[in-house]
Write a structure and sequence with these properties.
Length: 322
C-alpha cells in the first residue's frame, strides 16, 4: 500500500477551551468550550479514523494491530504517538505527567513526555515551565502551603517557539496560546493546582492529584538542553527541534516548503504530518493529494518517498522507538 493515510480529528470539550479550532483552523467542532483536537491518535480516548483509500473507515490503532507493515513492523503493543492541537482560551491546570514505569504501575498505560510548537501566542502570553524548589523537602513544603508564586516558573512565550516537556516536568499552557503538541500516547495527567475552578456539571472543584504529583515531579528542575538545527535547501527550510537521544520517544521537525522537495523515510520509519498553515500537495507513487491548513496524515513505512509542493508550514514527527 503506497498512499498516505488522511485522518479525521476528534475534539474534546475542556473547561479552559474556546472556539479558535473553528475560527482559526476551520474545523467543524461541537458546541461548547473545545480545547483539544486529537489529530493523530490511536488512544482509546480519541481514535483517529482514516478517511481515504484502501483503509478508509479504519482506526489507527486497528491498523497498528492488524497491518503492522504500515509502521515498519514495530515491537510496541500500542501506537506510540499522539498529536494534538490545543486552544487555551483560559489557562490549563498546573500539572505533571509520570514516566513509563510509574504510569504502567499506577495507570496501566504509557508515561507522557510531550512537546509544544507554539502556533499562536497573544502578547504577554507565558507558560508554567518547571519549578524553583531546590530539593524534595522544599517542593513538598511549598505545595502544601500553596506557595505557587514562589514555586512555579513563568516563562514568556511567542509564536513559533518550541518547548520540550519531559515526564516529571511541572508545566501548563496559559491563556491566549494555541499549540501543536506531540506526545507519547497517554492520557494521564496529575493536576497540581487548578485555580480553584469548579466543574459546571458537578458544581465541585476539579480533582487534584497532590500525592501523584509529589511522587513524579523531577527535583530540582533542569531545563533540557536542545540542539535545534535549521538548514535551508533552495527555498525550503527544515528545522529539527528534538530527536533521540534527548527525546527517546519522538523526533519533531518543522518543514517550511516553498518549492517542490522529495523526502524519504529512514528504513522502517513512518511519518506524522500536520499542516499548520498554507496549502499545497503531497505526491505519492505518482498520485497527488491536496494539503491545506488543519490537515493531518500519516505517511506509512510502506511509502519509500514522497514529494511536497506548495506554500506549506508543516510540523512532522517520527517515533523514536523501534
Amino acid at each position: 500500500m503506497s498512499e498516505p493515510l488522511f485522518l479525521k480529528p476528534v475534539f474534546h470539550n475542556k473547561i479552559w477551551g474556546g472556539r479558535k479550532l473553528e475560527t482559526k483552523f476551520g474545523y467543524k467542532i461541537p458546541d461548547g468550550d473545545i480545547g483539544e483536537c486529537w489529530a493523530i491518535s490511536g488512544h482509546p480516548h480519541g481514535r483517529s479514523l482514516v478517511e481515504n483509500g484502501e483503509f478508509s473507515g479504519e482506526f489507527v490503532d486497528d491498523l497498528w494491530n492488524n497491518h503492522s507493515e504500515l509502521f515498519g513492523n514495530p515491537k510496541g503493543k500500542v501506537f506510540p504517538l499522539l498529536t494534538k492541537i490545543l486552544d487555551a482560551e483560559a489557562s490549563l491546570s498546573v500539572q505533571v505527567h509520570p514516566d513509563n514505569d510509574y504510569a504502567w504501575e499506577h495507570e496501566h498505560e504509557l508515561g507522557k513526555t510531550e512537546c509544544w510548537y507554539i502556533i499562536d501566542a497573544e502578547p504577554g502570553s507565558y507558560l508554567i515551565y518547571g519549578h524553583n524548589a531546590k530539593n524534595k523537602e522544599e517542593l513538598d513544603t511549598m505545595i502544601e502551603s500553596g506557595d505557587w508564586d514562589h514555586l512555579l516558573r513563568k516563562v514568556p512565550v511567542k509564536t513559533g517557539d518550541f518547548y520540550f516537556v519531559p515526564s516529571g516536568t511541572v508545566h501548563a499552557l496559559n491563556k491566549g496560546i494555541m499549540a501543536l503538541e506531540t506526545q507519547q500516547s497517554s492520557d494521564t495527567t496529575y493536576r497540581l493546582y487548578d485555580y480553584d475552578r469548579v466543574e459546571k456539571s458537578t458544581g465541585k472543584k476539579r480533582e487534584l492529584h497532590i500525592k501523584q504529583s509529589e511522587d513524579t515531579i523531577t527535583v530540582p528542575h533542569v531545563d533540557p538542553k536542545l540542539d535545534i538545527v535549521t538548514k535551508t535547501e533552495g527555498k525550503n527550510t527544515f528545522t529539527t527541534f528534538v530527536q533521540p537521544p534527548v527525546s527517546p520517544y519522538f523526533a519533531v521537525y518543522r518543514w517550511e516548503i516553498k518549492e517542490p522537495v522529495t523526502l524519504r523515510h529512514n528504513i522502517g520509519k513512518y511519518t506524522l504530518i500536520s499542516v499548520i498553515s498554507g496549502e499545497g500537495k503531497i505526491t505519492v507513487d505518482g498520485k497527488d493529494y491536496d494539503l491545506n491548513k488543519g490537515v493531518h496524515l500519516i505517511v506509512p513505512a510502506t511509502v519509500d518517498s514522497w514529494t511536497l509542493d506548495g506554500d506549506l508550514n508543516i510540523i512532522a514527527s517520527e517515533s523514536g522507538e523501534e
